[in-house]
Amino acid sequence: MANEMNNLVVRLSLDNVNFRQGIANSGRAVRTLQSELKSVSTGMGGFASASQQTQAKMDTLSRLIDAQKEKVKALRQAYDQNKAKLGENDAATQRYASQVNKAVADLNRFENELKQVNKQAEQKGMDKLNNSLKSLQAEFQSITTGMGGFSNATEQTRAKVDVLSRTVDKQKEKIRELQQAYNRAKTEEGEASQSAQRYAEQIHRATSELNRFESQLQQANRELDQQGNRLLNFGNRMEAMGNHLQNAG
After folding, report:
1. Coiled-coil intervals in this record (predicted)?
2. Which string of DSSP letters, residue by residue, matches the chain?
């Protein structure tokens, strides 16, 4: 009986050493990444732009979440092992339970922070796209009213085709960004959530706008073809007239 008790004590001691080592390692990794996150958040990394800083923050938070998950896993293993051998009311078991709860709360906090940063990045990206589209629409309006000082109708139509082509490409990019945001909201908050529904409405509006831009582009291309045909016909008539005059002479 004494030998069995001694063996149990030895096994518990070895297990505790291994668990403590795993917890210590994961804890150090978490603290290192928290320091890195603080440095990134205060702009100490010398970032070239706000978007670069945001990307660095997202990357650090992702790695911090992975490290925190390892910490939670190590603490839960220690808790389960201690509970199985010494019981739920043992002081060490209770201590591990408290540490698990705190680690899970920290993990939830890190995950929520990453979600918030992702949303902010999405909004900044969307604002940039909307500003680009507004500039393109203003450029199109200027071309349509003839403010570009075009030498002829064909030159004006070519300018329309160019700006409309860029508008269509930019609008497609906007729809892709909205689709990604919708998928994220659906995964994190559910398809019926306000965020997911809002993105779904924006996708519908953006798709309608894309259809309008594409119709305008098709019309501009038809106009360009017609103008080209008129120029070709005019050239043919002038050539025929020249030949007629030459023969008459």
Report:
1. 51-237
2. -HHHHHHHHHHHHHHHHHHHHHHHHHHHHHHHHHHHHHHHHTTTT--SSHHHHHHHHHHHHHHHHHHHHHHHHHHHHHHHHHHHHH-TTSHHHHHHHHHHHHHHHHHHHHHHHHHHHHHHHHHHHHHHHHHHHHHHHHHHHHHHTTTT--SSHHHHHHHHHHHHHHHHHHHHHHHHHHHHHHHHHHHHH-TTSHHHHHHHHHHHHHHHHHHHHHHHHHHHHHHHHHHHHHHHHHHHHHHHHHHHHHHH-
